[in-house]
Amino acid sequence: MARVIAVLFCALLMAVLCTAQVNFSPNWGKRAASSEGCKASMDSIMYLYKLIQ
Q1: From CA 25, how far away is CA 32, in angstroms rounded?
Q2: C-alpha to C-alpha distance for 35 and 45, rounded to whole angstroms
Q3: For a surface tag, which of 15, 17, 31, 41 has the fewest beta carbons within 10 Å of its beta carbon?
Q4: 1-53, pLDDT tens digit by residue?
Q5: Amino acid 25: pLDDT
Q6: Whole-number Å distance between alpha carbons of 8 and 4
Q7: Which biological process, per GO, is one annotated for this protein (predicted)?
Q8: Which pLDDT does position 31 carry in this prediction?
Q9: What is the dihedral of CA 20, 24, 29, 32, to 10 degrees?
Q10: Sequence-ordered alpha helix ranges (H) in 1-53
């Protein structure tokens, strides 16, 4: 019985840790001051365009 409880506890602990890793973000709750990080460069767009063709 103790072995079953230990296995269930370990499984629950792993699930909680995985959920914490997926939900973590260093910028959580902050408003973006600039949107420059979202702009794609023309070189990368042209590369993707040529790759699709």
Answers
A1: 13
A2: 18
A3: 31
A4: 989 999 999 998 887 776 555 555 666 655 555 555 566 678 888 888 888 88
A5: 60
A6: 6
A7: neuropeptide signaling pathway
A8: 57
A9: -160
A10: 2-23, 42-52
User: Which pTM value belongs to this model?
Assistant: 0.37
Q: What is the spatial distance between Cα 18 and Cα 48, in angstroms, rounded to a whole number?
A: 33
Rounded CA-CA distance 13/2 in Å is 16
Residue type, 38: C
Residues in the chain: 53
In degrees and rounded to multiples of 5, residue 30 shows phi and psi of -100, 145
How is the chain split into domains, by residue range? 1-52
